Amino acid sequence: MRGPHGLARHRRRGHRPAVRVTVLLPSLASAAKAATDAPHSMRNATDRAALDTARARANNAAEGLVTAAGEPLSAA
């Protein structure tokens, strides 16, 4: 649903979990941002190959966040 601010409103809402992660575990800030930003690149895909590439990047970014989050847990 688009409000008067359109996409910007949606992106802010999508970043809320990343902001929480960043506040609670600052070491995960870059991985959280990458995992949040990557899916948005799928919107700009011009063809199937570009969509597949963007999807792979989004999946890799999400896996990177999970891996980064697991590091402090495995050290405990």
How would you summarize the topology of this molecule?
Elements: H1 7-24, H2 29-37, H3 48-75
Features:
76 residues, mainly alpha, 3 helices
Structure description:
The chain is an all-alpha fold and 76 residues long. It has one domain (7-75). The protein is built from 3 helices and no strands. The protein has helices at 7-24, 29-37, 48-75. Helix 2 (29-37) runs antiparallel to helix 3 (48-75). It is elongated and about 45 Å long. It starts with 6 loop residues before the first helix and ends with a helix. The mean pLDDT is 80.
End-to-end Cα distance: 42 Å
Strand content: under 5%
Order of helices and strands: HHH
Strand count, sense and closure of the main sheet?
none
Low-confidence stretches: none
Output mean pLDDT. Answer: 80
Tell me the overall shape. Answer: elongated
The structural class is mainly alpha
Residue share in helix: over 70%
Q: Please count the helical segments.
A: 3
Give the number of domains: 1
The number of strands is: 0
- Cα gyration radius (Å): 14 Å
